[in-house]
Amino acid sequence: MIQSLADGILVGAVLSLGAIGLTMVMHMLRFANFAHAELLTIGAYAALVFDRVFQGVNATLGVKLAPLTLTGSLIVAMVIAMAITGASAVLIDRLVFRRVREKGGELSMVFASFGVALIVRNISGLVFGLHTELYSKSIAFAVVVSRDPLLLIKPDQVFVLAATLVIMLVLHLVLSRTTLGYALRAVAENPSLAQVNGIPLQRMIVLIWVIGGGLAATAGIFYGMTNHLSPVMGRDLVLPIFAAAIVGGIGSIYGAALGGMIVGIASSLALLILPSGYSPSVPFLIILAVLLVRPNGLFGEVRA
C-alpha cells in the first residue's frame, strides 16, 4: 500500500508537468490538443540523441552523477531538447493549427490535433524503430527507505520529484510576480481585450507554445529516466495527462499539478485491486467522477 502510494506520487509528478503545459494551451487557444502528449516523445528522443552525441564527443560528460543514473551529457541534452520541443510546438502551430484556427472551428482543431499526433508518432517509429530505449543501461538500485512497511525508492525517482517541484515553483513565480506572467494570464482570460490594451497576441501565443513544449519535453525526459522510451509513449500518456488537466480544471496550473498527483496515485493504487489490463480505464473513471461532481474541475472557473 505504502509502496504503491509512493510510486503513484512519483508518476504523478511526471503527469503534472505534462498537464500544466496542456492546460495552458487549452485555456489560451480554446481547443483540446490531443497531440500534446507527442511533444513528450519529441523531447525524450531529442534528449536521447544529444545525450549519445555528447558522450561520444566528451567522455567526461558521460560520467554518472552517483547515486543517480543522470549524466552531465543528459543535463546538457535536456536543455537542448526543451528548446527543440518548444520550437517544434511553434512550428506545428504555424503549419497546422494556426491555419485551421483561422478557417475552422474548435472541432476542426481537435481533428487536426489527432492527425498531428498520428504523424509525429509514426515518424518517431520510423526514425527510431519500435523497440524501447534507455538513457542509461546501468542498473539503478533502489534504496530501502523503510523496512516495516517495506518502501523502496530509486534515487532517480527522488530527483524527478524534486526537479518537478522546483520547476513548478519557478513557473508559479513567473506567472504571479512578473509582467510577462500578467500578460499571459490576461491573454488567457480575454484575448481581444488584452490585444486592445497593447499586449502582442501572436507573440504570447508563440510563448505559450514554447513553455508548453518545454514542460512536455521535461516530462518526457523524466518519464524516460524512470521507465523507458518508446515511440508510442505519447499514446500511452495522453489519457492520464488529459485526465490530470480536466480534474484540476482547465486553465489552472495548480489544479493540473494536483490533478497529476491524483491520477498518478489512483492509477498506482488501482493495481492493488484490478488486473493490470484494466488500469488504463482508471483515468476515464476519474474524469467521469470529477465531471459529475464539479464539471469545471477542482480549480476551474466558469468560462463565458
TrEMBL record:
Protein family according to the UniProt entry: Belongs to the binding-protein-dependent transport system permease family. LivHM subfamily.
Name recorded for this polypeptide: Branched-chain amino acid ABC transporter permease
Primary location group: membrane
Subcellular compartments: Cell membrane
Annotated source species: Pannonibacter tanglangensis
Residues passing through the membrane, by range: 6-25, 74-97, 109-130, 158-175, 205-225, 237-257, 269-293
UniProt membrane topology term: Multi-pass membrane protein
Keywords: Amino-acid transport, Cell inner membrane, Cell membrane, Membrane, Transmembrane, Transmembrane helix, Transport
InterPro entries according to UniProt: ABC_transp_permease, BCAA_transport_permease
